[in-house]
Amino acid sequence: MFDTVVVATDGSESVKRAVDVALDLADRFDAEVHALSVVDASEVDASPQQLRDELRTALETTADAALATVEERADGADVITAVREGRPAVELCEYAREVDADLIATGTRGRHGENRLLLGSVAERVVRTSPVPVLTVRQLEPAAATDDDGAPANAGN
């Protein structure tokens, strides 16, 4: 059913669960895993000219670290990694076409946080424009306090 899974990563906390879900899914279907991190060209272009090279280098370093995290979480499984520069949603969808992906997995919010109510702007654009199904995975809220039986504390009070 899934031969090639592309997981989008920006290294943010909110993407870690999406990476884990994508890796688990790929493992279950013995699928090839591609991890892609996109350096957002609009961030670079919006910065002052004298800072662009430094910002691009910093963003590329962050992208490399994000991909290294995916490789670590893969626990020895092969992961094909790539860094692109451009508009994240466009690059992600184009990459999925290039590798003939069966699925794109992404977090619902990235480095820019909760500036959207339900989906981050990149995740929303990917869902709307992807040539393949998109699995969006939200980060779980910190676990609420539970009693000894695993039920929420103060349940029924």
Overview of the structural elements:
This protein is an alpha/beta fold and 157 residues long. It has one domain (4-137): Rossmann fold, CATH 3.40.50. The chain is 39% helix and 20% strand. It has five helices and five strands, in the order βαβααβαβαβ. It has helices spanning 16-29, 41-46, 52-73, 88-98, 121-129, and strands at 4-8, 32-40, 79-86, 103-107, 134-137. It has a five-stranded parallel sheet with strand order 3-2-1-4-5, with helices on both faces. Strand 1, helix 1 (16-29) and strand 2 (32-40) form a beta-alpha-beta unit. Helix 4 (88-98) packs parallel to helix 5 (121-129). The longest helix has 22 residues, at 52-73. The termini are far apart.
Compute the number of helices.
5
Number of strands: 5
Radius of gyration over C-alpha positions, nearest whole angstrom: 17 Å
Measure the end-to-end span.
Answer: 46 Å
Mean pLDDT: 86
**Biggest sheet statistics:** 5 strands, parallel
The strand order across the widest sheet is 3-2-1-4-5
Q: What's a concise summary of this model?
A:
This is UspA domain-containing protein. This protein is α/β, with parallel strands linked by helices. About 40% of the residues lie in helices and about 20% in strands.
